[in-house]
């Protein structure tokens, strides 16, 4: 899974680390026979009967020209899927979860619905909100299996069955990158190449990597140029690959993804690396590298990307360092230097964060599957781009074969734009036009990143949380008290007095809440799931 930042960082947030909270059960089992059925030629469904499909979408909501675009969509759809019209129900991200609950409770007749990061996907599957679609895909949409990698589809499986088609997009985990004002690089306060070598060799939060950043901050302090100091936010969460539940629950896998036998479940807060991180941040706070009022800030990241703001902060990177640095520099209005902190890309998110599902109330699942096929394959590329960007000449202008300039907004449609919705919510973004907000060759870049990444063998694993739901609720409360949130760090901010004592209390309270039991239960389920992969 939002300018360069508004498009790409949204997809990162969706793929991560922004992460789904899986609160319902979902036992794993060997995939059904239909899971491995080879794709064949699509069957021709009977389209002699006129059908109107209701499609609930997530985006900026109803816009001034929405109906005009929907009318044009239905006009063009008639040539690809005769006797089929679509009634769109556009909902905003903010209202989606509540509106969906009402629709589901009233058994409203819906054919296709977006499902993703604002919903509990596993919980919806277990409630029967969506139908299993393996046979529908094999019969009416085999091209999906040809054009979308199998590991992408696996992320939407529950108990081996496919309940949605993930909207294919950049899927690698957040790759942490240190940002610094380029003027400090030019002055020799930090050597990007030497820093990168250390980060790659020892990891983003190793003692050695933190020492490199600490040396940079000390030089700034000696030269009276600390400005608003260092922002530790994001780094901690961006290096948490292989989460087993969500960003709110501190349980992850460690080990070599290419060697499943090495994979062990840990509570990431209860590790030497995390203890050292907190000690280091506490030391940096005492030295003045971090703002003294850090704990009182509602937005601890408020000084990032400002000429007089933070001297070091973190975010993701896509593409080359040069292109990303140039894009960010343009966005913020002053030269910024990116320093990547991880060399390899990893795909470890167990559930995809944006999908299209066929609901249990659909009376036309075959036709719905055919429409999803169009939105996810090359055959329907023009139709998909019409739905995402609107009408050429009115909502965007073409600037190249696959490049456009959106009108009235940049990157992603807004509520006050005439038209323009979220590409990642409508289908296969590999077929999306690139906009003025993207880095050069954006689609090929993320596709190459995906294909070159190490893919977790646990994709499709959905932990059954029933045996540990009481412990997880108690642990979440402890985490909120001692760790805070990604936006408002507590212990990791460095600003807590007696942090050693508080850290010891933190770990003790998590153990009292049942963290060891959670680790044992998750390890058992992981081991059982991996047996099905042999």
Unreliable stretches (pLDDT < 50, length at least 5) are: 1-39
CATH topology of the largest domain: D-Maltodextrin-Binding Protein, domain 2
Number of helices: 19
CATH architecture of the largest domain: 3-Layer(aba) Sandwich
Q: How would you describe this protein?
A:
The protein has 534 residues and is of the alpha+beta class. The chain has helices spanning 4-15, 66-80, 93-105, 121-127, 134-140, 142-147, 150-154, 182-186, 192-202, 207-222, 235-238, 272-287, 321-332, 365-376, 381-389, 442-452, 469-482, 499-513, 515-532, and strands at residues 51-59, 84-92, 112-116, 157-158, 161-162, 165-166, 177-181, 251-254, 264-267, 313-315, 336-340, 346-347, 354-358, 396-398, 404-406, 454-455. Helix 9 (192-202) runs antiparallel to helix 10 and helix 17 (469-482) packs antiparallel against helix 18. It folds into two domains: 49-170 and 350-451, Periplasmic binding protein-like II (D-Maltodextrin-Binding Protein, domain 2, 3-Layer(aba) Sandwich); 172-346 and 463-534, D-Maltodextrin-Binding Protein, domain 2 (3-Layer(aba) Sandwich), CATH 3.40.190. It has a five-stranded mixed sheet. Strands 10-7-11 form a three-stranded antiparallel sheet. It has a two-stranded antiparallel sheet with strand order 4-5.
């Amino acid at each position: 899974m939002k300018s360069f930042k508004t498009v790409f960082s949204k997809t990162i947030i969706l793929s991560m680390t922004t992460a789904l909270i899986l609160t319902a059960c979902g036992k794993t089992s060997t995939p059904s026979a239909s899971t491995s059925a080879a794709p064949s030629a699509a069957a021709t469904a009977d389209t002699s009967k006129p059908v109107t499909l209701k499609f609930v979408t997530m985006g900026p909501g109803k816009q001034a020209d929405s109906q005009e675009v929907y009318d044009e969509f239905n006009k063009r759809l008639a040539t690809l899927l005769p006797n089929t019209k679509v009634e769109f129900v556009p909902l905003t991200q903010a209202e989606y979860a509540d509106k969906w609950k009402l629709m589901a409770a009233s058994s409203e007749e819906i054919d296709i619905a977006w499902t993703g990061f604002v919903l509990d996907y596993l919980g919806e599957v277990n409630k029967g909100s969506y139908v299993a679609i393996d046979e529908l895909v094999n019969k009416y949409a085999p091209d999906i299996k040809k054009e979308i990698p199998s590991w992408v589809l696996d992320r939407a499986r529950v108990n081996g069955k496919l309940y949605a088609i993930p909207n294919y997009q950049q899927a690698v985990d957040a790759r942490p990158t240190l940002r610094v004002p380029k003027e400090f690089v030019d002055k020799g306060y930090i050597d990007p190449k030497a820093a990168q070598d250390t980060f790659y060799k020892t990891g983003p939060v190793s003692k050695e990597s933190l020492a490199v950043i600490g040396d940079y901050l000390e030089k700034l302090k000696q030269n009276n140029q600390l400005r608003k100091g260092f922002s530790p936010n994001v780094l901690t969460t961006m290096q948490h690959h292989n989460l087993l539940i969500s960003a709110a629950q501190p349980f992850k896998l460690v080990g070599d993804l290419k060697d499943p036998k090495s994979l062990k479940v840990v509570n990431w807060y209860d590790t030497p690396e995390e203890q050292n991180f907190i000690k280091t941040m506490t030391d940096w706070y005492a030295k003045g590298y971090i703002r003294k009022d850090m704990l009182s800030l509602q937005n601890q990241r408020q000084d990032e990307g400002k000429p007089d703001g933070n001297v070091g902060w973190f975010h993701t990177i896509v593409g080359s360092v040069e292109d990303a640095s140039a894009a960010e520099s343009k966005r913020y209005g002053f030269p910024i230097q990116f320093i990547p902190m991880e060399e390899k890309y990893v795909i470890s998110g167990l559930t995809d964060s944006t999908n299209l599902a066929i609901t249990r109330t659909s009376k036309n699942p075959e036709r719905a599957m055919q429409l999803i096929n169009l939105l996810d394959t090359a055959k329907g590329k023009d139709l998909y781009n019409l739905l995402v960007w609107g009408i050429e000449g009115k909502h965007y202008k073409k600037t190249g074969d696959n490049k456009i300039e959106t009108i009235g907004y940049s990157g992603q449609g807004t509520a006050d734009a005439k038209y323009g919705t979220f590409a990642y919510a409508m289908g296969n973004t590999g077929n999306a036009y690139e906009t003025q907000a993207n880095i050069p060759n954006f689609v090929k870049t993320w596709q190459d990143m995906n294909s070159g990444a190490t893919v977790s063998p646990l994709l499709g694993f959905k932990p059954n949380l029933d045996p540990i739901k009481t412990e997880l609720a108690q642990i979440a409360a402890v985490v909120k008290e001692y760790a805070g949130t990604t936006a408002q760090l507590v212990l990791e901010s460095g600003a807590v007095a007696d942090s050693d004592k508080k850290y010891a209390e933190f770990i003790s309270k998590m153990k009292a809440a049942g963290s060891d039991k959670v680790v044992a239960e998750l390890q058992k389920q992981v081991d059982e799931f991996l047996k099905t992969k042999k």
